[in-house]
């Protein structure tokens, strides 16, 4: 019940973010078309993100972090749906919120989205990718392979599941190579009878538009809950930030831009108000903020099987599965859907510190915000209106 209320707030926040996005870039007619195409995905993907968050929140033990990539998961399931038919396909599309679209439109939209994300990688590392490890000796239909390569920057590779440890090592090596070695041990204990493993990986490393000064970082307390306190490296910076104080919801919302078209959105509920968030509508204003933010690295993983089944994707996992778009010889079903995401938050931006503009500070008293209690976090990519990541940081040291 509590999770439900918190999640409604998330949906509202995402709405506010989309509306508050004034960074409109002038672009040619062709890229407008590209933008329109991938923006078609942003509303259904945001809704699905909330469904995922609710489910993961309900399954996450107190004090553990929630961190996942809504974009990554929607992408992986869309890729899967290219090979699905009948009710299996309908369930996927219905859960993803794509019921008014057809597969071609969704494929095109993802192709454009990846193209646009690829364009904005100059100052950040953003890798979103998919792969399907398929049992040796099984040849998927040509059309399926082509769709995956053409639209999803996806790869299918053959793995000998009869040697589960070697198969796992091969899959893990593939993922490690795509994630700068940040995710090295994603799969283990593979079933030798496995028909296919669907993999999604996401790696993000952004540089703050306005870096923190490492000299100001100090050990401070972070209050995980009423009885647990941990020590964190608290980074400090005073500067102009998009800020919104929501008294009705007992929360403060803050936007920290990365270089490029990406920003981190922080929702910091007042003490003991994490579960009392409700809707809000207003937009940000810019103000002086004296910000304290933990420096942390987290990695969170989740098996999504139950979460997806709860969202209505059931046939894909069972004997009713129809993946006749992947093979018309071997009946297939999905064995497992895993997801892992990694985030590092630190002071950096040092290489580009020289290019940082000097800020003229009005003499008003800055708002003091120290993130020393659990907070919600989103990483948003503005040109595609994508939620790259979403999470609840309950304990930065966990
Ligand atoms: C998908 O929808 C578009 C636009 O309505 C249409 O032009 C196209 O033919 C449809 N494709 C398929 C495979 O149904
Ligand atoms: C931001 O996105 C626009 C497209 O909307 C793109 O043209 C621009 O290059 C991107 N900016 C950066 C810094 O990547
Ligand atoms: C941090 O302190 C060191 C040593 O005092 C100094 O050389 C350096 O310039 C400082 N860094 C910044 C960003 O002020």
From TrEMBL:
Q: Which residues form the Serpin domain?
A: 50-396
Where in this chain does the entry annotate a coiled-coil region? none
Span of the secretion signal? 1-20
Return the InterPro entries for the record.
Serpin_CS, Serpin_dom, Serpin_fam, Serpin_sf, Serpin_sf_1, Serpin_sf_2
Query: Which Pfam families is this protein grouped with?
Result: Serpin
- One Gene Ontology MF term: serine-type endopeptidase inhibitor activity
Q: Which GO terms describe its cellular component?
A: extracellular space
Q: Which UniProt keywords apply?
A: Glycoprotein, Signal
Q: What PROSITE patterns would the database entry show?
A: SERPIN (PS00284)
The similarity annotation says: Belongs to the serpin family.
Q: What is the protein's given name?
A: Serpin domain-containing protein
């Amino acid at each position: 019940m509590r999770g439900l209320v918190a999640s409604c707030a998330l949906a509202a926040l995402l709405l506010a973010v989309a509306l508050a996005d004034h960074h409109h870039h002038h672009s040619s007619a062709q890229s407008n078309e590209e933008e329109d195409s991938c923006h078609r995905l942003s509303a259904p993907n945001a809704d699905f993100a909330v469904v995922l968050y609710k489910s993961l929140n309900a399954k996450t033990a107190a004090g553990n972090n929630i961190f996942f990539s809504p974009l990554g998961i929607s992408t992986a399931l869309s890729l899967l749906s290219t090979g699905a038919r009948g009710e299996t396909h309908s369930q996927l599309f219905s859960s993803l919120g794509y019921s008014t679209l057809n597969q071609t439109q969704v494929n095109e939209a993802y192709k454009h989205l990846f193209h646009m994300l690829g364009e904005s990688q100059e100052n950040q590392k953003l890798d979103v990718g998919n792969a399907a490890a398929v049992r040796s000796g099984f040849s998927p239909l040509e059309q399926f392979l082509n769709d995956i390569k053409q639209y999803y920057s996806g790869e299918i590779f053959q793995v000998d599941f009869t040697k589960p440890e070697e198969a796992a090592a091969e899959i893990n090596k593939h993922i490690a190579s795509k994630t700068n070695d940040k995710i090295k041990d994603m799969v283990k204990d593979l079933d030798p009878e496995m028909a296919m493993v669907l993999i999604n990986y996401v790696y993000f490393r952004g540089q703050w538009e306005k870096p923190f000064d490492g000299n100001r970082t100090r050990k401070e307390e972070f209050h995980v809950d009423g009885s647990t306190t941990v020590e964190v490296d608290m980074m400090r910076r005073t500067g102009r930030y998009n800020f919104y104080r929501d008294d009705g919801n007992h929360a403060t919302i803050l936007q920290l831009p990365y270089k490029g078209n990406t920003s981190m959105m922080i929702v910091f509920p007042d003490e003991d108000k994490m579960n009392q968030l409700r809707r809000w509508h207003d937009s940000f204003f810019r103000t002086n903020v004296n910000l304290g933010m933990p420096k942390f690295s987290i990695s969170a993983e989740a098996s999504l099987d139950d979460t997806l089944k709860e969202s209505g994707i059931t046939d894909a996992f069972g004997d009713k599965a129809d993946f006749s778009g992947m093979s018309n010889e071997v009946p297939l079903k999905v064995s497992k859907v895993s997801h892992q995401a990694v985030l590092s938050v630190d002071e950096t931006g040092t290489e580009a510190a020289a290019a940082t503009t000097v800020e003229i500070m009005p003499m008003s008293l800055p708002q003091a915000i120290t993130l020393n209690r659990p907070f919600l976090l989103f990483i948003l990519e503005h040109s595609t209106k994508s939620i790259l990541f979403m999470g609840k940081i309950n304990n930065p040291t966990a």
